[in-house]
Amino acid sequence: MFPYPLKSLGRDWTSPWEDLQRYCWNRHISSCLRWPGHYSRSPYPYFSSRHFSLNCRPPLLFESGTQFQYCNWRPDHLSNTSLIRLSSYIMNSDRDEPSSKRRKHHGTIKRNWEYLCSHNKEKMKDLDGRDVDSTCEDNEEKFDFSVMSYNILSQDLLEDNSHLYRHCRRPVLHWSFRFPNILKEIKHFDADVLCLQEVQEDHYGAEIRPSLESLGYHCEYKMKTGRKPDGCAICFKHSKFSLLSVNPVEFCRRDIPLLDRDNIGLVLLLQPKIPRAASPSLCVANTHLLYNPRRGDIKLTQLAMLLAEISSVAHRKDGSFCPIIMCGDFNSVPGSPLYSFIKEGKLNYEGLAIGKVSGQEQSSRGQRILSIPIWPPNLGISQNCVYEAQQVPRVEKTDSDLTQAQLEKTEVLVSAEKVPSHLRHHFSLSSVYSHYLPDTGLPEVTTCHSQSAITVDYIFYSAEKEDAARGPGAEVALVGGLKLLARLSLLTEQDLWTVNGLPNEHNSSDHLPLLAKFRLEL
Q1: Which helix (H) or strand (E) holds 306?
Q2: Residues 6+ apart with CB under 8 A from 507
Q3: I want to staple 347 with a disulfide (CB 3.0 to 4.6 A). Which of 36, 255, 321, 341 is the partner?
Q4: CATH 3.60.10.10 fits 142-361+368-387+420-465+477-521, yes or no
Q5: Which residues touch 27 (CB under 8 Å, ≥6 apart)?
Q6: Torsion angle of alpha carbons 24, 27, 28, 32, nearest 10°?
Q7: In terms of DSSP bridges, do strands 282-288 and 324-329 run parallel, antiparallel, or are they unpaired?
């Protein structure tokens, strides 16, 4: 490109101004320098062959690194011996668009364990491999286990949505680079239960399942319906649990126009391996709800279907429920109606716009209101999110039997009765995370790419109402048979952009893994 060799300045390059000026007249230089206004500390001004005058500050324009005040900068102010710095990243590809969030910082993400129990503790490892204290003491009446929820980013979805990852170096996006990193994280944290989302079917069969089985996991997998290439997996340690039942949930129902999406859920019933005759079972659910921010009606219906299956699986003979862990990518933000419904167990959706359900979009202009009821009766799920039998109204027999037309009229009258606009579920669920940093109040995020950085991933667990109402950071007492012992801290958007967002050289998904340790009271 230039007649003289470029001189390297770290990852950037320099060239004599006279060569750069000659090159600029033949090619718009904005294709090889960052765009103006797209980088808060851009080390060079914006050049254009159409207009060269610009008020700017070029703090690192010259090799000497001399600082300049704002000035009316023109190319004729530069001598022929001046050197211009070019970004090696932008020079790699004409198709890469510069990102305002691109950083030159490198390194690993620092995440710490947050302990919610102050009794005697056992050893765990942090991200740097150091031994740290993490959990409460064990005895024969307690069973401790850890859970990881992780959206590992399907390779096909990554490639279909490549515009979300323009901030990434291309090599870090290859599956051959990403999978070893993901497996390294899983091995490092060594969770007893894994709930994975966006698990691509071919990768699951060829690499993911064999690798996890070699680590002592039993794996169950449910692929999305239709032609979707990914699904959800729940994997658990042979040494910790026995499998009682596997219950997949398909959210697509061809007989119901509302339910035309291919998302799925997976519910397992596990038995802890403990040296006693009888122990309570554990229900573990995993899902990935619809992304579309403007289809809150579908999201709520998918959630209701998952809750109905959990209710069926976790139900005990005495009418109570065994402890529940519900993980996944819910594509809803903290404080949204869908999130509040999970935590509070009730939702009045009358007058609620479908685009407001998940909280992913702020404006609801032009959006219709949720219908009452949201889903049709033939789905077989009540407003309490449990399965119900399809019932025909009972009619007292008389001397003259009712005609078929009269029966049909009776059914119509019953269905025409006003349906309440309230959803409910029977579980007391709490989130492992508080979603805001206690010191600064900044929001935690679980996913971060070129277009957004928000929380959409959760680990919910059985909780008593009085404990669920406690403030974040408070010690959690016995919660429906489960006690939260520790959680791996989350980060802010600013934290993640110091390592160039997600994915990066060390974190190979656009989501962070969530990790918590629980105690099951026996």
Answers
A1: helix 296-314
A2: 109, 181, 185, 499
A3: 341
A4: yes
A5: none
A6: -80
A7: parallel
pLDDT digits (tens, 9 = 90+) for 60-114: 444 444 444 444 444 444 444 444 333 333 333 334 433 445 544 567 888 999 9
Q: Are the C-beta atoms of 367 and 404 separated by less than 8 Å?
A: no
Look up residue 37 and give its two tokens.
């206004």
Kindly state the tokens that stand for 93: 């590809």
Beta strands in 259-375 (DSSP E): 264-272, 282-288, 324-329, 346-348
What DSSP designation does 319 have? S
Alpha carbons 110 and 491: distance in angstroms, whole number: 9
Half-sphere exposure of 219 (CA within 13 A, CB side): 19
Question: Which residue shows structure tokens 């070893």?
Answer: 180
Q: Which two tokens stand for residue 78?
A: 């530069």
CB neighbours (10 Å) of residue 50? 5
Separation between Cα atoms, residue 401 and residue 374, nearest integer Å? 36
| Per-residue model confidence (pLDDT) at position 43 | 32
Question: Residue 491: in which H helix or E strand, if any?
Answer: none
Which two structure tokens, joined as six digits, stand for 242? 């026995």
> If residue 208 lies in a helix (H) or strand (E), which one and from where to where?
none
> Which pair of structure tokens corresponds to residue 518?
């629980």
Indicate the Cα dihedral angle 297, 302, 305, 307, nearest 10°: -100
Dump strand ranges (E) for 117-206.
Answer: 123-125, 131-133, 142-151, 193-200
Chain centroid to Cα 208, Å, comes to 19
